[in-house]
């Protein structure tokens, strides 16, 4: 059975018309004869939206009881049993009521699609996991309900429901989105023009990324290798050299001229030994690229222009930024550089050649292309094959003005020149070929391979010996130079590793990534086998396809009995093992540190619990003893017969006993509630509740203090437990009164913002520094003996715990002009709320 398709209507903010568009599409399909049913649609009491439901079959919802209230959710089983062609499921990011089959509605949708039913759904951009934190920074509102981006990216169709911010605000002002009493607060907070513009841009950019993925898949499926300039992509080639910063700045300016352009940096690593660039320089340039908002990539290839263009075409790049060659003019005449070759092969990709301070200063002696590389040997042989005939013709034309000794010197010069270019074997070929040419054309008798005079034979023999000697010396010098370069590269890599150790940079993925970049490998994998009877398992890997066992890689480095580092990409020469072993040791150390940190994190709750028990004993030993002692003293005095108390004195003693026992009762209640909260067994009975009912009761329980209440008359009811909310307010108001200076009353205000009500309790005390606010909410913060009215420090901790148990938030912020404001944010009561 084929899996059902998913169509998602994406919006930038509530009210843009996602549900309306979904229902309009459903009606179009219904009128064409498609079997369409409504699984879950939230109309928000909007008449035009409700009108679209007329005539559509609605699958009854499933009722669930939670915390004393009834909620309805999508009935997945009923939808699958009904088996329609298409089902409408609104609000893809919705969190289901506990007790549902799945925690999230998008999981319900996946099950329905598995049954072969097509689904049409809706989601706002602020509910996408990847941009959730960005939305909170923009709007200041945390979104609790999120959906993984991949769920929406895998949708068969994603359609943007767009609306200009000004038009959306007009809809809001006309009452087409929220009820009239909530419009002013919404327009001045979440629905500001700046917020809506930023959310709209986020939605457009996210959808552009999905469209980009679809285009890449289409080009790959149809084998399209050419560049489609649907979007500007700028690729900058980095060598790790000092010119890289100039190239990155230029590429960034080019990308900035095209809105939405992508910046990609690529380094082509050669496949022969250590990478030619300094690892530290490449790492720095990588950080620069990522800081500019681009991405860094590394590919392996001996043909740099081909590898560079293959990457650019694979990324559908439109522009390529290269640096002007650092090689001198003479070297460029002998062999065109990477820039010239890339430009000639670029086709439809625009190539920018950027000049820089290092241009034509010569290439630094790095990498393994220097010394006796195959290309230099080939060049030497070609020079010998072309140069010796030309030299012979020239010397023949100059006879008889030039004698045999001069001819020998010219040929010896050719041997030395070719030795410098191509090394030993081209030079030895030149020496033997020169011996034959000198014997045939210039040594009497000519045109015969014989030598008449002994001195001529000796001269030719010396020529051959000198040529061989020069070849060997040049070859040894080249080998020593290559070894020195290699050792220098190894030393630099090891120095970088040592620097990482000293700076404390032990992230396992970073170590493996540095190894992969240094040697230009395809993948690097750290494997572990705790015992010989168990199979190898992957601990960490970077790059392409990982190695499942040490034998899968091209090289392996054991680290102890249970760890092995396996690399894939090319065979590693013996000279590289020293550096590989250093990386392997650091990777093992990074793994140990990672596991130690994990152990420390696991031990942290035990440590916190131990501290809490200790603090509880310290605090309770004083705070239980004080009211008990006061009550006992008062009762003993009343029951004693040695003193005759007056009525006033007896009443005062009774009042002292009553107040002490009330304080003891509050303390025990707080301790019990905190223990229930931590155990997760606190019962919550939420119901519609007006704040002007619970605030006066909290003030009556408080029994005193300067408090000013300004709640307003048009506040919606909140969903809360009356007893628990009263406890929260008593604790918060008491704390505010205690810290307010005389003559400065505590101010209590409230207001509605979107689907929540915020109750603010503001004092004019010293406040709490921002860095200490979270610590103030930890239980038992008042350690040791204090005054008799301080308590055990459970007030704020208990207030936050009870508030969050009612699906609310307790947020501290500064009072304008000085002091602390505690904000109790509670959800507005609805018969069918979005979140439990």
TrEMBL record:
Record Gene3D superfamilies: 1.10.287.130, Backbone structure of the membrane domain of e. Coli histidine kinase receptor kdpd (1.20.120.620), Histidine kinase-like ATPase, C-terminal domain (3.30.565.10), HUPs (3.40.50.620), P-loop containing nucleotide triphosphate hydrolases (3.40.50.300)
Single Gene Ontology MF annotation: kinase activity
Keywords, in A-Z order: ATP-binding, Kinase, Membrane, Nucleotide-binding, Phosphoprotein, Transferase, Transmembrane, Transmembrane helix, Two-component regulatory system
Signal peptide (from-to): none
Superkingdom of the organism of origin: Bacteria
Pfam families per record: DUF4118, HATPase_c, HisKA, KdpD, Usp
Database matches in SMART domains: HATPase_c (SM00387), HisKA (SM00388)
The protein's name: histidine kinase
Taxonomic placement: Bacteria, Bacillati, Actinomycetota, Actinomycetes, Streptosporangiales
């Amino acid at each position: 059975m084929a899996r059902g398709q998913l169509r998602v209507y994406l919006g930038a903010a509530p009210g843009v018309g996602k549900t309306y568009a979904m229902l309009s599409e459903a009606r179009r399909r219904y009128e064409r004869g498609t079997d369409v049913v409504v699984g879950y649609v939230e109309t928000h009491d909007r008449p035009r939206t409700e009108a679209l439901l007329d005539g559509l079959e609605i699958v009854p919802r499933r009722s669930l009881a939670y915390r004393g209230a009834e909620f309805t959710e999508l009935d997945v089983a009923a939808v699958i049993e009904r088996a329609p062609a298409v089902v409408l499921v609104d609000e893809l990011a919705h969190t289901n009521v506990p007790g549902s089959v799945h925690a999230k509605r998008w999981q319900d949708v996946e099950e329905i699609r598995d049954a072969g039913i097509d689904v049409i759904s809706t989601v706002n951009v602020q509910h996408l996991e990847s941009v959730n934190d960005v939305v909170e920074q923009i709007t200041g509102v945390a979104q609790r309900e999120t959906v993984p981006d991949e769920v929406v990216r895998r949708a068969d169709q994603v359609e943007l429901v767009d609306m200009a911010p000004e038009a959306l605000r007009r809809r809001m002002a006309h009452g087409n989105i929220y009820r009239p009493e909530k419009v002013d607060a919404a327009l001045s907070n979440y629905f500001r023009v700046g917020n809506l513009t930023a959310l709209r841009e986020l939605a457009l950019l996210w959808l552009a990324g999905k469209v980009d993925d679809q285009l890449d898949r289409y080009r790959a499926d149809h084998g399209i290798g050419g560049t489609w300039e649907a979007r500007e992509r700028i690729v900058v080639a980095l060598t790790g050299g000092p010119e890289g910063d100039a190239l990155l700045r230029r590429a960034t300016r080019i990308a900035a001229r095209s809105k939405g352009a992508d910046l990609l940096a690529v380094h082509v690593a050669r496949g022969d030994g250590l990478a030619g660039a300094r690892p530290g320089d490449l790492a720095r340039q990588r950080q620069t690229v990522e800081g500019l908002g681009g991405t860094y990539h590394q590919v392996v290839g001996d043909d740099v222009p081909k590898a560079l263009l293959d990457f650019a075409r694979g990324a559908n790049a439109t522009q390529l930024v290269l640096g002007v060659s650092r090689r001198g003019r003479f070297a460029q005449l002998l062999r065109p550089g990477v820039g010239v070759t890339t430009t000639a092969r670029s086709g439809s990709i625009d190539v920018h050649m950027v000049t820089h301070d290092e241009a034509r200063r010569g290439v630094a002696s790095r990498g393994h292309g220097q010394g006796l590389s195959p290309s230099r040997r080939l060049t030497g042989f070609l020079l010998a094959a072309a140069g010796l005939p030309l030299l012979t013709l020239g010397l023949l034309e100059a006879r008889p003005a030039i004698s045999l000794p001069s001819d020998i010197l010219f040929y010896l010069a050719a041997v030395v020149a070719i030795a410098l270019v191509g090394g030993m074997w081209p030079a030895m070929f030149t020496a033997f070929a020169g011996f034959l040419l000198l014997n045939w054309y210039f040594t009497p008798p000519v045109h015969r391979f014989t030598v008449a005079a002994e001195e001529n034979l000796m001269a030719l023999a010396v020529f051959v010996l000198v040529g061989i000697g020069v070849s060997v010396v040049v070859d040894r010098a080249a080998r020593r130079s290559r070894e020195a370069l290699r050792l220098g590269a190894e030393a630099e890599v090891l120095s970088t590793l040592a620097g990482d150790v000293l700076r404390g940079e032990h992230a396992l993925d970073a170590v493996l990534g540095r190894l992969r970049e240094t040697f230009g490998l395809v993948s690097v994998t750290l494997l572990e086998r705790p015992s010989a009877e168990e199979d190898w398992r992957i601990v960490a890997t970077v790059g392409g396809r990982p190695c499942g066992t040490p034998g899968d890689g091209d090289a392996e480095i054991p680290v102890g009995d249970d760890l092995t580092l396996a690399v894939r990409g090319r065979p590693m020469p013996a000279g590289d093992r020293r550096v590989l072993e250093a990386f392997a040791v650091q990777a093992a150390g990074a793994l140990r540190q990672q596991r130690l940190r994990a152990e420390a994190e696991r031990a942290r709750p035990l440590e916190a619990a131990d501290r809490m028990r200790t603090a509880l004993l310290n605090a309770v030993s004083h705070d239980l003893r004080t009211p008990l002692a006061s009550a006992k003293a008062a009762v003993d005095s009343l029951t004693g017969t040695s003193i005759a108390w007056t009525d006033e004195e007896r009443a005062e003693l009774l009042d002292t006993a009553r107040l002490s026992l009330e304080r003891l009762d509050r303390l025990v209640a707080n301790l019990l509630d905190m223990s229930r909260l931590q155990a997760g067994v606190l019962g919550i009975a939420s119901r519609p509740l007006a704040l002007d009912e619970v605030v006066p009761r909290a003030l009556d329980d408080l029994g005193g203090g300067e408090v000013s209440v300004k709640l307003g008359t048009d506040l919606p009811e909140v969903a809360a437990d009356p007893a628990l909310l009263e406890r929260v307010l008593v604790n918060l108001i008491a704390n505010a009164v205690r810290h307010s200076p005389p003559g400065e009353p505590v101010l209590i205000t409230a207001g509605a913002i979107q689907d929540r009500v915020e109750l603010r309790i503001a004092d004019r005390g010293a406040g709490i520094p921002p860095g200490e606010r979270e610590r103030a909410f930890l239980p038992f913060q008042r350690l040791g003996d204090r005054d008799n009215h301080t308590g055990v420090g459970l007030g704020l901790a208990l207030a936050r715990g009870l508030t969050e148990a009612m699906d609310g938030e307790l947020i501290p912020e500064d009072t304008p002009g000085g002091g602390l404001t505690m904000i109790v944010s509670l959800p507005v009561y609805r018969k069918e709320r979005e979140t439990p």
